[in-house]
Amino acid sequence: MRRGHPHLVLAICCLSLFLVMMDVTIVNVALPAIRRDLHTSMAGLQWSIDGYTIVVASFLLLAGSMADRFGRRRTFQAGLLLFSLGSLCCSMAQTTLALVLCRVLQAVGGSMLNPVAMSIIANTFIEPRARARAIGVWGAVVGVSMAIGPVLGGVLTESVGWRSVFWVNVPIGLVALALTARFVPESRAERVRRVDVLGQALVVVALAALTSALIDGPHAGWGSGFIVGAFATSALAVATLLWHERRCPEPLIDLRFFRSIPFAAASLVAVLAFTAFNGSLFLHSLYLQESRGLQATAAGLCLLPTAVAMAICSPISGRLVGAGHARWAMVVAGAGIAASALFLTGLRVDTSLGHLLVAYAVFGVGMGTVNAPITNAAVSGMPRARAGVAAAVASTSRQVGATLGVALAGSITGGGDAVGALFVQVIRPVWWLVAACGASIAVLGIASTSGRARASALAVAHLLDAPHEGPAR
């Protein structure tokens, strides 16, 4: 294979995607073991997940700008190196605080991978149909990698220990690093955008303050000065961000993107889907191991129907999207997520295994189908020069959803350490929230594929392709 061969470049980019997305799910199965070994609380477990997702969500857009300025391959390699180093540090953490800090280092590297890889793909596959097929493969890898995580995490946690779920990232990262150096050509944007320092800072403040309020609210009290102040800080940061981005000549987030109904809907669907996914997975791991008393491997195997359904449905969804049937993919995704959650509203400690497996399989159908239409709606119709930024916004939306899912799951359940029947009772409202997320996804899938929605996407593409000198309005 020669340097720059399109399908080899796609394979290398998908390898990094596999690494990052598998990490999202593999850690969840190890949470009970981490809690026992590090003697941490529910809030500590939440921060071990959200410490990662907050940083990734905050710096994805900055990583895209860095890639445009310093080179996509160089930024991609830096991300692989930092992610691998962070994973190694996580495996050696002796306290909850150390684990969270190492997860932050890991996340800095992770933020440099997915949006930069998508930018490389968008600039490798120039012909629209070829690009749509490549995006379909990309969406399929998201589903497959997230599906493998719980099963592999369970086996590794029980056989080797929870630290091994981080070790597994290191050899994969180093292989991807070597292949990138050998086969991926360097590229840069024709015009480098300036870094929006204020916009970047406001994103970090908004996400960190909101997450802190949601996680710590049950313990500190929702009316406490700290929690009220955190919510107020987040709201003020968001309002200031919107005001600033409209007036910034080169904003971190070009708000004109959201005039495209498909793009805006894809961003919201990503938040809803990953709120449902990460919140559910966080609670499933605790329910299966701490309420039902299963070992980590058995818990991972119980989630196998989700894994299989995602692995099967992800490539099918990619082909549906490539064939122009994104609406069907989105409706099936929303219906699957909602139906699964409704199955679980009657969950008990002694719920039959068959009932659980059906619910997990239906949930896998929903999540396996949702990724390809999200990415396609975000990137398709955008000028090629903006594809990386558009993909980064979609990826950021996923990570925001992941952060909110874990934070809300702990917050709704009271942030306590309930076990057994009491734990099952306190998590019931989460399933109703997940069902509402699924129903909203189905509605957005229909609205975002209407004639009016397609017209709005064409209008925004034309606007973005034209020379733009002044502030975004």
Please write out the topology:
Elements: H1 6-29, H2 31-38, H3 42-70, H4 72-91, H5 96-110, H6 114-124, H7 128-159, H8 164-167, H9 169-183, H10 197-220, H11 225-247, H12 261-291, H13 296-302, H14 304-322, H15 326-344, H16 353-379, H17 387-412, H18 420-426, H19 428-447, H20 451-465
What do these coordinates show?
- The structure is a single chain.
- With 473 residues, this protein is mainly α.
- The chain folds into 2 domains: 6-183 and 252-465, Up-down Bundle (Growth Hormone, Chain: A), CATH 1.20.1250; 197-251.
- The protein is 79% helix and 0% strand.
- It is built from 20 helices and no strands.
- It has helices at residues 6-29, 31-38, 42-70, 72-91, 96-110, 114-124, 128-159, 164-167, 169-183, 197-220, 225-247, 261-291, 296-302, 304-322, 326-344, 353-379, 387-412, 420-426, 428-447, 451-465.
- The termini are far apart.
- Mean pLDDT is 85; it is low at 467-473.
